[in-house]
User: Fold FCD domain-containing protein from Salibacterium salarium.
Amino acid sequence: MERQKESAAKNESKHFYQLDDEFHVIFEGCHKERILGVVQDMMSKNFNRVRLLSLSEKINTDIIITQHEQILDAIKNQDK
Assistant:
């Protein structure tokens, strides 16, 4: 999360999205393969194309970081 926050602060959108992709692999280690499958489906070629197009615009990384922090908290608290 810290690397993603740093990347957002520096407005390094491409690196931010690379870290975003890495973050979603967390579900594999949590034995949540079904969730990982859904996330991977969402990150299809069309979704990646939209993300890459957004690199030229100011993205709202705060929302993504907040969502990731909520996901991590849910995992830590073993929310179902």
In short: The chain has a mean pLDDT of 76. Residues 2-76 form one domain.
